[in-house]
Write a structure and sequence with these properties.
The structure holds two protein chains of two kinds.
Chain A (H helix, E strand, L loop, with lengths): L2 E12 L2 E12 L3 E5 L6 H8 L7 E6 L7 E2 L5 H7 L1 E3 L12 H8 L8 H6 L2 H21 L14 H13 L5 E5 L7 H18 L2 E5 L3 H7 L2 E6 L2 E6 L1 H5 L2 H8 L6
Parallel strand pairs in A: 3-8, 3-9, 6-7, 7-8
Antiparallel strand pairs in A: 1-2, 1-4, 4-5, 9-10
Chain B lengths: L1 H25 E4 L4 E4 L1 H35 L6 H7 L1 H21 L2 H26 L8 H18 L3 H20 L7 H21 L1 H4 L20 H27 L2 H11 L1 H6 L4 H27 L9 H14 L4 H17 L7 H15 L26
Antiparallel strand pairs in B: 1-2
Helix pairs in contact in B: 1-2, 3-4, 5-10, 5-11, 5-13, 5-14, 5-15, 6-7, 6-8, 6-13, 7-13, 11-13, 14-15
Classes of the chains: A alpha/beta, B mainly alpha.
């Protein structure tokens, strides 16, 4: 399988602190790649760098989406990167709390629609059609994710687990080829994590997209990942299948701890 | 038991007030007869008055708190009255009918003075709706909104003075100039948020006013521009009486037009982007929304209405000078938006009528009217901080294709 994103020698410095240090990472087509590592290892910084919130100090991120449009995405603004097909969710939920659930997803459709001010005021045929398609598409995504019962609720009023799912729904609405999930299971109970587990695999299979996820819940990581990359102090210290990672002494020392030794 | 402690607290408050107001309310030095008057009676008034007010205040706070607790449980099923009016045709149609009959017959029933006040109130409706785009929807706190109002007014004033252009020719020009200045202000403040944005926009408003005040060759300085033409009626100039009525109807038309446009904008792709920007800037960008374009479009579209109203203001008063465009105007327009409820069209309309008509009709209370006005604002902010109408978002029904959101509740 060919890679959809290649990260080469990526480095991010904050003053004297090197948060990400010459990191190489490939994400292949239709794979679930988990990124694990202790707190402060630079996982979220890497996400922020891929999605354009930070600019890398060195190195590059090269994308080759299935639909065409290969190139590096360093230095592009977040909205352009999203338009190119990389979307993310946030570790600490960042929904639009005073908009309805459906509207949250409709925001995700923003970069795939084109109605402008004149269209909004005169509401011609094309705008009407686009608006209708946006509503239907967004509702369809909510159904797929399984939170369509909340459609007209304010996002801020949703239970925690549903808010996490809504973030994923909103991200999917942008039609990504690569979805970055930042700790999607954080704060979820085992039952909700189980639902999430099935959902992530389902998204990969049905949408044919690659998923890169940061997660601390080892059961989830081990069960859904095709590959796992381990970061520590900004460097990649290991990469491989769940089985390989589980038995890697370096990883055990840095992160997993003794109880995960099979 | 609880009552007793409340009474005690109110009693203490009244003692405090008596003490604090002692120098101004009780002692009076009569410089002519060189004696000190001790007006003990006033002290009694202050004491009793503050006791009662304090007690009522506590009572209302308690009511509000117990109300909150109760509400939380059935909050989702209760629709506010105004929303219900909007949704139910049985209530909505008669209301609209009554309002339109009232609106049309108003100038023929009431005096020119009343018509003038109503026109002013309608102008503030439009200004409020314009600022609502910037502050209420996009969440960009703009304290210099009056600058665009001034730009519109001077556009008409100057074009009329130098080139004799009429109202109808300049109205779109004023709107355009407003939008242009909106973008002009938008560029430098793109990176700013919250307090910083407020300060810079405040500065921008003052700059425009100061330029108008000091650049004599351009704007005629503090003396302003006089003898601006009133709007013509198909080329004919009207008498003062007729012009007042004419401007009133014109204003109703513009206000309706504004409501129409803002309503459509609010529920469009652009409007949702504005709200998303207000809610969370980082998430908004991460969802593929161009922050720059969205902010600039909000500033431009908000300022458009101010520019338009500026032209109408110049045409209505036939005289403009920089003194009409002080920070106080910005503050009033902002109060309309906040009082009415950020992001709510109906709220802003009600807010504008309350804030503009109330001081006018409180004139009966002469010097106390501003005091009353302030008290109403304070009470409003304590008991209903979200504004008259709180954030209402459009809901969608999916009965046709799927289960509807309503049924599944």
């Amino acid at each position: 399988m060919k890679p959809v994103m290649e990260i080469k020698k990526l480095t991010v410095d904050f003053g004297g602190l090197r948060a990400v240090d010459h990191l190489d990472l490939d994400v292949k087509e239709r794979e679930i790649l988990a990124l694990i590592g202790p707190n402060g290892a630079g996982k979220t910084t890497l996400f922020n760098c891929i999605t354009g919130i930070y600019a890398p100090s060195e190195g590059s991120v090269f994308i080759s989406p299935p639909g065409g449009g290969t190139g590096t995405i360093n230095g592009l603004t977040p909205n352009i990167i999203t338009r190119k097909g990389i979307t993310r969710t946030f570790q600490n939920i960042r929904l639009f709390p005073n908009m309805t659930v459906l509207e949250n997803v409709m925001i995700g459709r923003h970069c795939r629609t084109r109605a402008r001010i004149a269209g909004a005021v005169f509401r011609g045929k094309a705008t009407e059609r686009e608006e209708k398609a946006t509503v239907e598409h967004s509702y369809h995504i909510l159904e797929k994710i399984g939170i369509s019962q909340y459609v007209n609720e304010f996002a801020g009023n949703l239970p925690y687990g549903a808010q996490r799912l809504l973030e994923i729904a909103r991200a999917l609405a942008t039609e990504p080829f690569l979805l970055l999930l930042d700790e999607p299971a954080a704060g979820m109970n085992p039952q909700e994590t189980g639902v999430l587990d099935a959902l992530i695999s389902k998204i990969r299979d049905e949408e044919n997209i690659a998923i890169l996820l940061i997660e601390h819940d080892m059961r989830l990581v081990m069960s859904i990942s095709d590959r796992i990359a381990v970061m520590d102090y900004g460097k990649k210290i290991a990469e491989g299948t769940p089985e390989e990672i589980r038995n890697n002494p370096v990883v055990i020392k840095a992160y997993l701890g003794e109880e995960f030794v099979a | 038991m609880r009552k007793l402690s409340e009474i005690k607290k109110s009693f203490l408050a009244s003692i405090w007030f008596m003490f604090l107001t002692f120098p101004i309310m009780v002692i009076r030095v009569n410089p002519i007869e060189k004696v000190v008057e001790w007006r003990w009676r006033n002290m009694v008034f202050v004491g009793v008055g503050s006791f009662i007010l304090s007690f009522v205040w506590r009572y209302m706070i308690r009511q509000k708190e117990s109300g909150l607790k109760k509400n939380r449980a059935d909050d989702r099923h209760k629709t506010p009255f105004i929303q219900r009016v909007r949704e139910e045709r049985r209530l909505f149609i008669p209301l609209i009918a009554v309002l339109s009959v009232l609106g049309v017959s108003f100038p023929f029933i009431f005096s020119a003075y009343q018509v003038n006040i109503m026109t002013t109130a309608l102008m503030y409706v439009v200004l409020g709706l314009g600022l609502n785009i910037v502050v209420g929807l996009a969440g960009l706190l703009d304290l210099g909104y009056v600058a665009f109002y001034a730009v519109g007014a001077y556009t008409y004033g100057l074009l009329n003075h130098h080139f004799g252009l009429g109202f109808w020719a300049v109205l779109p020009a004023g709107a355009f100039m407003g939008a242009l200045f909106g973008i002009l202000l938008g560029f430098p403040v793109l990176r700013l948020r919250g307090d910083y944005l407020a300060i810079v926009t405040l500065g921008f408003g003052e700059i425009i006013r100061l330029v108008l005040e000091n650049w004599n060759d351009f704007s005629f300085g503090p003396s302003g521009i006089a003898n601006i033409d009133r709007p013509s009626f198909f080329g004919a100039q009207l008498s003062l009486q007729n012009a007042t009525v004419y401007i009133y109807f014109l204003m109703i038309a513009i206000a309706l037009f504004t409501v129409f446009v803002v309503n459509r904008l609010q529920n469009s792709r652009i409007g949702r982007a504005w709200v998303a920007l207000r809610e969370d800037e980082i998430a908004c960008e991460a969802m593929g929304i161009d922050k720059t374009k969205t902010k600039l479009s909000a500033f431009a579209l908000g300022a458009t209405w101010a520019g338009m109203m500026g032209v109408l203001f110049a045409a209505k008063t036939t005289f403009i000078n920089p003194a009409s465009f002080t920070f106080l105007e910005s503050a009033i327009i902002l109060s309309i938006v906040v009082l009415g409820g950020m992001g709510s069209i109906t709220g802003v309309i009600i807010g504008a009528f309350v804030l503009i008509l109330l001081p006018e009709y409180l004139r009966a209370f002469s010097e106390y009217r501003m005091l009353l006005f302030g008290a109403i604002l304070v009470i409003m902010m304590v008991f209903r901080p979200q504004g008259i109408i709180s954030n209402v978002r459009r809901t969608y029904k999916f009965a046709g294709i799927n289960i509807s959101g309503e049924q599944s509740k």
